[in-house]
Specification:
Helix content is about 75%, strand content about 0%. It is built from 12 helices and no strands. The longest helix is centred in the middle third of the chain and has 21 residues. It is elongated, with a radius of gyration of 21 Å.
């Protein structure tokens, strides 16, 4: 893909120049690969939280520019801008371990009706985020993000959810999920814990 960053406007150029060299390398390798998914070496690199933050910001700028640039850019430039934004989203989808970035990507995919990407992100939730971070997503104001987080938590071991009950912030989510495990998935272990919680409340413990 032949890209002249400056052709996309001042904000995109500034965001690109603000990337560290390692982050820019990630994008350049993915763009050069000209594939729907980044090549394996990109995913094999150690996780870099700062790269997450940088690419999240770049994606925000790219999407904003794409939404406003239909008249100021040529057809070729618009196509390249969209490709760059999609590549940035794909790199993030393959690497992110940030609840905030997951939320950004899910909202973006839902806006575009990109259900295949939503499925990919849903599969990655439990593998990349700690249970407490998934609880953070389960409190999201976005119904899609909230549903994905709940579906991820309901498949977690009951012992993990019991651990979340000790956190005053996550306890309500954990209890809701335990009740789902007990009722919807007929988990005897979850049922016993829910019963114990109900009895403790009744006895005022």
């Amino acid at each position: 893909m032949n890209i002249t960053i400056e052709d996309f406007g001042v904000q995109v150029a500034a965001a690109w120049q603000g990337l560290r060299s390692t982050t820019r390398d990630l994008m350049e390798k993915a763009l050069t690969a000209n594939a729907a998914r980044p090549v394996a070496p990109v995913r094999a690199l150690p996780y870099d939280a700062r790269a997450d933050w940088e690419l999240s910001g770049l994606l925000t700028v790219l999407d904003a520019r794409a939404s406003e640039a239909r008249e100021s850019l040529s057809s070729e430039q618009s196509t390249n801008l969209e490709k760059m934004a999609e590549t940035c989203a794909t790199v993030l989808s393959d690497r992110t371990q940030s609840a905030e970035v997951f939320a950004q990507l899910v909202e973006r995919a839902h806006d575009r009706r990109d259900y295949a990407r939503i499925d990919v992100l849903a599969d990655a939730l439990a593998k990349r985020l700690a249970p407490a971070e998934i609880c953070e997503l389960a409190r999201s104001g976005n119904v899609v993000i909230r549903a994905l987080a709940h579906e991820s938590l309901v498949t977690a071991p009951t012992s993990v959810l019991v651990g979340l009950l000790r956190d005053p912030v996550d306890a309500a989510i954990a209890r809701d999920v335990l009740e789902r495990q007990a009722v919807d998935y007929d988990s005897e272990e979850a049922r016993q814990i829910v019963n114990y919680l109900e009895q403790s409340e009744l006895s005022g413990e």
